[in-house]
Amino acid sequence: MSKQVIVIGGGVAGLEAAGQLSKAGIEVSLIEKENKTGGHLNDWYKLFPDRRNSSEVKEYLDGITHHDGIKLLTNTTIEKFNSNKSHFSIITNEGKELTADAVVVATGFDLFKSARKEEYGYGIYDNVITSTDLEEMFRKGKIVLSNGNVPKTIGIVHCVGSRDEKVGNLYCSKLCCVTAVKQAIELREHLPESKVFCFYMDMRMGGAFYEELYREAQEKWGVNFIRGKVSEAGEAIDNKLIIKVEDTLAGRPLKMEVDLLVLMAGMEMSEGGKKISKMCGLNTGENRFFAVADHHYGSNRSNIKGVFYAGTCTAPMNITETISHARAAVSEVMDYLKNVRK
Amino acid sequence: MNIEGKKAIWKDYQKEIADDKFYYVRSCVRQNFFPGSETAFLKIMREELKKDVYEHPCHTTCTGIGYHSDIVPVETTMTVVARQFAIMNEAGYENLMPSCITSFGLYTEILDTWHHFPEVEEKVRQQLKKATGREFRIPKNLAHASDVIYKFRKEIAAKAKYKLINKNTGEPLKVVDHIGCHYAKMFPSKGVGGAEYPYVLAGMIEEWGGQIIDYPERRHCCGFGFRQYLVQANRGFSVACSKEKFESMKPFKPDMIITNCPGCPMFLDRWQYVINEMEGKKYGQNEEGIPVFTYEEVAGLVLGYNPWDLGLQMHQTDCEPVLDKMGIEYSPEDKYKTEVNALYSESHNLINV
Q: Is pLDDT at B345 greater than 70 in this prediction?
């Protein structure tokens, strides 16, 4: 009889893990709380650094999970979790019991709720939006202000909810800088007459071809990068946004008017992940993501034998890293089923 | 602007405000700046709301201005504050209600410091005992006087004789609310509505019929900001701060400004006169200034108190445009005929009536 694994979460990590497990002959129950798989990938327009359409990656993931060995349960959440001598059982919100020999947790991340950075006025001022809102505009092919006009001056604020002691997130979300660069280029492509200003603390362009994209944004697209964090936004009588920022390279405060302000929301442990953590007794770290057994050689292992992690439920990652991490989780699961649990 | 977004934030910042039996500590400067405000506050609390408000003749400055000016060392400040607590305890009160925003901020800061560093509190206890023989308990409740008026804003509205509505147009008066920096900027959770979109004055204005204006320099300092003003060489910067605010609020055509800090109304009021003298510029409508009020004065006007008993004749920017819009009856001839204790129906000793 083949082994059974439950994968919790149908985002990039969960889909990749489910696909690779089924390829290895494992029977997989894939649980997704939404009505479709794909997670945050569904919200994105084009991906960095190569600017390919996000739907291409989704097509790949759908392809590998189109397998008889995968039982997909959408609109499903976990209400109870039991473990008994390497045997796991889960009760879903519909009262269904699922059993398994191992569990892969791939609950992903939630975007930082930008309204928590009250000083930027998200949810209050009409033309303050997040990076996700902008992606939706790109997908619709219509970048307009609340009054229907086309924005001429656009500000992009980096590190919203990341590297920020005030909101309790000391860590870097890693992907916001390159997202800002990508979106700045796309804004200039869609709106060639616009001026785009990025306000950053440090440019953290650590991934492959990120630095090249940053250079392209400046040289080819004329995006302005100002080193300094926006301290506040307010709305003038004509709905324009007045922002204040300290230009730390020029060494002087700056006050400027923009039509649109885009907040690069960081990544946080998902609410679903927090619930699973409590229910299963899985440890979390200071950053509130799941705490891995070892940062160097055990980043897929948890504090419970037979429960493994895949993807951004452990830390901010890009798609490439998420897929690699999910594959590594599968390798750990296979080793566990073959050599540890037997 | 989406008001629902603000309401969501306001929900997150609600504080506990005592219901009765307040120990009132006065501001060092307000009685000189706007002499009717604290008197009006006591009348509203005692006569309109029937609350027990106690003042001790021996309470002193909290040393806030000296502390923020680097003149008074923090340990001295803490010991003075400990003494205020001690005499409050001796009088049998537990709910501290400062009139001054800087005092409120300082009390909040000291209580937070003691919470995190109990050894500092212990040292202050020893110093107070050694210096005065007194002991103290931490206040059960700390609320600024504007918090208390906010709490009872509906009761005041129920007794209102006038509303913050333009009687000629039927439109709500457009009101700029300016919150003292020390109210919530240091400890957002201790202010009604938080630090970014405080609700303490906005709640009063809404309840009394007015409409709050949100303008870009809403958070900016009034111009007092002790270093701008106490250091004589910086006073130009003080006027510049106020000017920045006036320029920013002008397009919204405000009818009035309401404040909850000792310094803010003084500077927003006086500097309008100075800017007009320097540049011939006025920021209100019809070539007038924008009248500036304390929240007690606004509450007094709403309740129908005589504007001159409230001390509005002491304002440098004329308040009459607002009185006329609200339809308040007043005698222009009586403007400078000051009567001592005119606010009270019978002669009162203001201390512990």
A: no
